[in-house]
Amino acid sequence: MSSSSNNESLIELLQTISTTCNRYVAICIFIFGVVGNMLNIFVLSQRCFRSNSCAWSFLVSSIANLISILFGLLTRIISGWAIDPTSYIGWICKIRAHVVFTTRTIALWLIVIATIDRWLLSSIDANRRRKSTLKNAQRCTTVIIILSILLYIQQLFCYEANLVNTSLKCNSRTAACLYLSNLSFAVITILIPLFLMSVFGLLTVLNVRQSQRRLQSLALRNTTAIAIRSSATTGEHPHGNLKRKADHSLLRMLLVQVLLMAILTLPLSIQNFYSFFSGENKSAIYEAVDYFSYNITDLIYFVSNGIPFYIYTLCGGHVFRKALHDLFELLKQKIVRHQACLLQK
Predict the structure, then answer these.
(1) Confidence of residue 108 (pLDDT cuts 50, 70, 90)
(2) Is 344 helix (H, G, I), strand (E, B) or coil?
């Protein structure tokens, strides 16, 4: 009797914590995520980043993150105060699942493309460097978007609302659909992209160090020639110098983002694997713990959708912060002009 009472108390406690997180934590993530991604979109659309292939990947990834937060967190916030509409309206359940799974996949795979792009650009092989182009980045983006939509098209058929005997009322209606969804999300959306980011991130760092050693070696052989070449590329071509600074800033932003993506997305992947291999017959206490762990790790994942702007601001160097400053100055000038027009009327 005492054991049953303790289990009920634990279940009630976990439900209370989950509801509180949906009410307050989700709102905080929603606000800073929406604001951050919108600022990212405005900044990365400016002229200094417009022709950069890595910045293009960051831009589209920010759009995907914004959509994921809007579709995924709004219903979570509602569930903290009222009944979640996805739990009893079938078409909302299906669309939310498809959009959230798809945009999360797009966002992470575009960071993979950005990592590969930095690896190509940092290579001492001229043929590889020539492949780092905006056109190639746009082609890869198109392919990723199409494949991501097709990968999770199953959600439109598998997901149902008003499910019984399950902690999530909006979920896959069959065990086969649930296993396929959890496995594809954990492996294709999270683990494989994180692995590729890590590999190409390390390769990029090795390329940079190799280039530095090569430049040092050339400097020792012919200091005068290097000085002339340096002045020709930096002193007489300020645009090339700015472009090189942007490349270095984007590389730094990318490496920090890869590290934080791994920290914030892996918990949900581990939770999916745990739920995947735990079987179907679950006790009430297990269902409560499973839902609680899913709720917390899913909120942590949404943090990864909302932090890119703050990473770029802190690690993007002078180039990104100047672009952000220029954006605010432009908005300020428009507001002043608008107020002047109103006063004239």
Answers:
(1) very high
(2) helix
Confidence of residue 259 (pLDDT cuts 50, 70, 90): confident
Sign of CA dihedral 14, 17, 23, 25: negative
Q: For the chain, give percent helix, strand, coil, nearest 5.
A: 85, 0, 15
Please give the Cα distance from 203 to 109 (Å, whole number): 18
| CATH class of segment(s) 2-344 | mainly alpha
The span from the CA of 5 to the CA of 11, in Å, is: 10
Q: Rounded to 5 degrees, what are φ and ψ at 104? A: -65, -40
Return the minimum-mean-pLDDT range out of 14-23, 43-52, 282-291: 282-291
Report strand pairing: 171-172 vs 159-160: antiparallel
C-beta atoms surrounding 324 within 10 Å: 19
Average pLDDT over residues 217-233: 51
Torsion angles phi and psi, residue 152, rounded to 5:
-110, 20
For residues 261 and 268, what is the distance between their CA atoms, to the nearest angstrom? Answer: 12
Q: Which of 204-218, 227-241, 283-297, 316-330 has the highest mean predicted lDDT (pLDDT)?
A: 283-297
**CA dist 183 to 88, 124, 188, Å?**
25, 38, 8
Q: What is the pLDDT of residue 4?
A: 66
Q: Where are the domains of the chain?
A: 2-344
Question: Is the distance from CB of 132 to CB of 115 less than 8 angstroms?
Answer: no
Per-residue CA distances from 257 to 210, 264, 268, 304 (Å): 23, 10, 17, 9
